[in-house]
Specification:
This protein is of the alpha/beta class.
Amino acid sequence: MAKPRHFGNEEMLMVPFLDILCSLIGVLVLIIVFLAVSQTTQTEGRTEEEVNRAIKHRQLSQRQQREAALESEVKPLLVKLASLEEEADAKEQQAARLRKIVSQAEDSKVLSQNLLKSLDNLLLEITGYETQTTEVKKSIAELMAEIKKRDLVAKTPGPVLVQPAGVGTEPDSKVFFVEASGGKIVLYWSKTEMTQVSSAPEVIIADTSYEAFLKKVKEQPKAKIVFLVRDDGLGSYNNAAGWAQQTHAFEPAQVAKLPIPGRGRIDLGMFDSLLGTIPVPEGTPLLPISTPTL
């Protein structure tokens, strides 16, 4: 008699539910960590330099508010001091008149005694005014010392860092810089060698330094002039760039304009190999390195 066939239990390879759950939790944890890190490093699309500039601006605004508060405290004290000194002078004059009356009224004892009493009272008032004046002067001196300590005088502005990203140049090209501000331009022969020239039209067309600068730039292939324009330098830029295009046939792509915020000196330290240099013509005056080009 045939025996029934017994089939072996075929094991099915399945991932346990708990393993799936643990894997899902792990993925969620990684997503949460990633979102937390990105949130802490998020700066609303601003660069680190812009964030630092915003922080400095806020600190400067807070400092100006504190200084304005100190000045608002000093002004009422100065007014009070002037008023006290004026009243003290009036009392002194009144006391002088009483002394004169007392000296003329020696025969009348009653009158003299009344006048002497008035004079004593008046002298007490004068003493009180002198005490108040001393206290007010002391307060003013303390506030002025605090103002001096906080250095209300404007300091030399920090350098303005020019970044290559805003210039738009090819990797093998050279960039030459001309700074345009109110009434003048500054030629950058190198990072540290600069010459200042008046931006008046009658000066630019005849200035040998600017002419030599334009010729040397034109001789170099793929050269580009970038005008660093201050907030008051649009007229200087128009005169200088117009003359360069008119007399040396610079193409529009070879002449760029880059607005420069602030009033500090220009820092070209980030250009390195992109920065073009020109030998300074003999006899050309140079600006001192420490002089901020405003």
